[in-house]
Amino acid sequence: MTRVLVILGVILVVVGLAWPWLAKLGLGRLPGDIVIEREGFRFYFPITTMILISLVLSLIFWLFRK
Residue 5 domain-assigned? Predict the structure, then answer.
């Protein structure tokens, strides 16, 4: 359990440090992401981005199991 938590912590740090470059990739503004903007209100639900990140993380964890 501690190994998994350490790996997740390292991944979070790496993503945090790489955030300026990841933002340039367009994550969060993909087709399929829902953005509703009205006066004094903004709703953002990144469905496509979440699916893409889930697929990448699933692939990474699958590769680590092998």
Answer: no
